[in-house]
Amino acid sequence: MARATVLGRLTWRVATVAAVRDETGTARTLVLDVPGWPGHLAGQHVDVRLTAPDGYSTQRSYSIASAPGGDRVELTVERVPDGEVSPYLAQVLSPGDPLEVRGPIGGWFVWRPEDPAPVQLVAGGSGVVPLMAMVRTRAVGGSRTPFRLLYSARGPAAALYRDELDRASADGSGLEVTYAYTREVPDGWGRPPGRVDARLLTEAVWAPEREPAVFVCGPTGFVETVTGLLVAAGHDPARIRTERFGPSGGRS
Fold this sequence. Notes:
Blueprint: H1 2-9, E1 13-22, E2 27-33, E3 45-51, E4 57-63, E5 72-78, H2 86-92, E6 98-105, E7 119-124, H3 128-140, E8 147-153, H4 162-169, E9 175-181, H5 198-204, E10 213-219, H6 220-232, E11 240-245
């Protein structure tokens, strides 16, 4: 049975685009109906394959943004300038179109609702996508596990899911969201533009004594910097899980 489950996840399935939703000027969410979808965990990803009429094919990995449930999966794709796959997914693909997917993939960078530890999420750019799946999974299950999200983005207009996150952090469920804007800040913002540093981590992240489960996702340089700051602040490296992507269009 276990082997059959693994093989099923390695099988390419033809999904149908049910809807598309613009998240920012450069990012779009694809809502996919995937017949026979085996289910996923918050934090997992899928492979997406595109095949040209001449037979040339290429594939990329994209994190799942949605909470588990049924045969519907959501992917949020940030358009990469001069990218081979993301421009098609984020600009061309339309409802009714087919899309080949394979997964879910990954078992390390996942959050399970039965884990009682406080959760600290740290995202850089589109690295918020798998962390959003965790936020949504918590909400769907009615969990009261303490959650904090520190989200670094270029500015308010570049922050994915900002309205949803703001609503969720105001509903009294225990989700706390802190934004770090690196290029542009809103009027009256209490901090100048800047990257995540040791001071901000001290203010926005659970103290090491709380022994939080920490998930960090974003570009490689961001992940390495944040992880180093967390360890220097006293967080147990064994409790820090990381997921990173580069400029070549890998995980997003």
